[in-house]
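[Meeting: bench + compute handoff]

Bench side (C.D.) handed over the final construct sequence. Compute side (W.E.) agreed to return the predicted structure before the next meeting so the bench team could plan truncations. Sequence as handed over:
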Amino acid sequence: MDAKTVQELKARLPVIAANRRRNFKPLKTAALVYLLFAAADGFALNFFDDGDVEELASALIDAMSDEDALAQTFMLGWRDTAEGGPSLLIQEWISRRRVGAVKVFGWNTADTPQLADNIGILQRLSAKNPYSTPLLVATDQEGGLVRHVKGDTSDTPGAMAIGASGFPEDAYNSGYYIGRELSVLGINMNFAPTVDLYTNHSSVLIGPRSFGDYPEYAGIMGIAFARGLLASGVIPTAKHFPGHGDTELDSHGVLPSIDATFDVLWNRELVPYRMMAKEGLPAVMSGHIAFPNTAAAAGPASLSKWFLGDVLRDRVGFKGLVITDDMIMNGATTSTGSLSLAAKQALLAGNDIIMMSSTPALNDPVWVNLLDAMRAEPEFMARVRDAARRVMGVKLKYLRGEKAVPLVPDMARVRNGIPDREGTVFFQGLAARSVTLIKDNGGLIPLTGEKAGRLFLAGQNLDFFTLGRKYFDNVSSYWYSAPVSDDLIQRVRLADTIIFYLSSREGIEVLRSFRPLGKKIIVLSVLSPAYLNEVPWVDAALAVYGNSSDSLLAGFSAILGKIPAKGSVPFELNGR
């Protein structure tokens, strides 16, 4: 380390000492580090130093400037790219602001090797900071409906398929194989598992992302999924605390309000968090949802000190990181009026990282106002440094050592390891194990050519048509939409049996138009089978919980009788 840097560090010793007296308990190792600063010009703290994680985390944050400490609480996304790498603005945030974390969204991921290369670029920039602190690199790779890292990665069954299979081992292996692919890409944190209960069956936002509506069951599957991610080196994050499953509304556009009392939440939505906290869960994402019948009143839980402090920290006993859902959401900012105020309230409430899907300007108000508040308000200064210390502790625990995700991806492993070959076999098996026979009143299954007669496929998925044509003779197909066209009705009149792809309320309206025609109808329900409650008159129905080719292949295989449909719907459906 050069002499100028040493002198700058030594000049900060009085500030470090003041921070320690004001905010933190004395730590012997940390105190020794400070003495070494003063005594040895050649010594400097480094993220990769040996020693107690808690003490090293405190020493690193105490040594940081206000700007560097605040930057550890920021997680930013980036939308545009510069030639040969991620946007210049996100690179500036890392090199100049020393931001602590980035988030990978779907718009970053079409080119898998390029994504890996971009992550390497960002980590190399971060390694140049005075303490060599790496970035948390996060994404949403739940499996199934939410798969932000697309490109060459596995298109897997989701959480509801795991719930239908009934095997915690399937949850573990899902987390493990998803994590192995993320690890190859240099992504070290996953915003999964989703442990929201499927309490409101009209919820489109949660739906098949949930393990089901049984609290203990969701907790068991969430623990297993998280363990699988950890075995791959990836940090799991349970979401959306305290629970997003009892509303039809989406917090991206509005602030949903759920009428449940705290007693109901404690014995229902909070059960998975209570179970996972005892297992040492590393991180939780706070949700932008209001619970007006609790002490949090009408504001979002993500900005509530009562929810994040009194409930999550004190009553649940959670020790890990708390990360906001995207702050660029109306559910986060409606109650405060601005992103700056929402971000400050989020930190004061107990979030350790504020996540934003876009990259603000370097001197954006959200940065300037938070930094000013740190310097003017001792309480806020203490809260930010406490959050930064917790962030640093998680990094020290999970981003170092043999099991850690590589900071700079190996491009040969990217080319050869995605999709994960073992994972491909596992996910095909999971899709088959989760297929559920809901009903077969007409004895149509297994469906033979003789039973089917003239077969008609009505759907909204190209793989559905391709597989149907592969496995059945004398078949025609139609991509349906609402309102129903005369052409579709005429085609249905010519058929004997219909296999109908049902994934939405729009599909229910189309399906109802077929009822007067007296045709044999088999419904293949993808995503959530809750819509089947509204069409009890169909002859047969199966659920596959996903729209990937593996899930559709499993569904057709069950219709043909090639595999047994042994899955169970993981929530209450028509009394089942």
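W.E. noted at the follow-up: Confidence is low (pLDDT under 50) at residues 16-35, 38-42. C.D. will use this when planning the next construct.
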